[in-house]
Amino acid sequence: MAESAIFDPQYLSTTAGHAVSELFQHLWRETRRSVEGNTVVVTLPFLDRHNDYLQVYLTYRNTETWKWRISDDGYTIHELELQNRQLSPEFAHMRDGSELALECTERGTGPAFWRLLRAMMSV
Fold it and tell me: 26-54: buried (b, 16+ CB within 10 Å) or exposed (e) per residue?
């Protein structure tokens, strides 16, 4: 490939698009899902400081205002306590007792899942 093609915006955009697509395909293949009652346990290919995979719990509860509760099952608060640290104010609204959790409708599961995962990875 000619050196001038490297700076071609169309080429860069297309190449980046392929890279992102491959990343998402890889994440999908490496993510494990298991069903336990009305909860789906999602094991992600991200390791914590103990080399354990991060897990997120999606519990189905069909109420009038929301259908899903997305939680870390106490992982983040426990890790913070081990490190003698406090939860960042950015994520404080997620705290529900000893765990981080968000409640959402079916359409809001993606953004809620991402917010919870960001909080978990910040530890």
Answer: eeeeeeeeeeeeebbebebeeeeeeeeeb
**pLDDT, position 38:** 93
Paired residues of 35 in beta bridges: 40
* Average pLDDT value for the chain: 91
CA dist list (Å): 110 to 40, 82, 116: 14, 29, 10
Cα 123 from Cα 112, distance rounded (Å)? 18
pTM of the model: 0.82
Nearest to 59 by CA among 47, 43, 73, 46: 73
Q: Hey, is 74 helix, strand or coil?
A: coil
User: Which residues make beta-bridge pairs with 36?
Assistant: 39
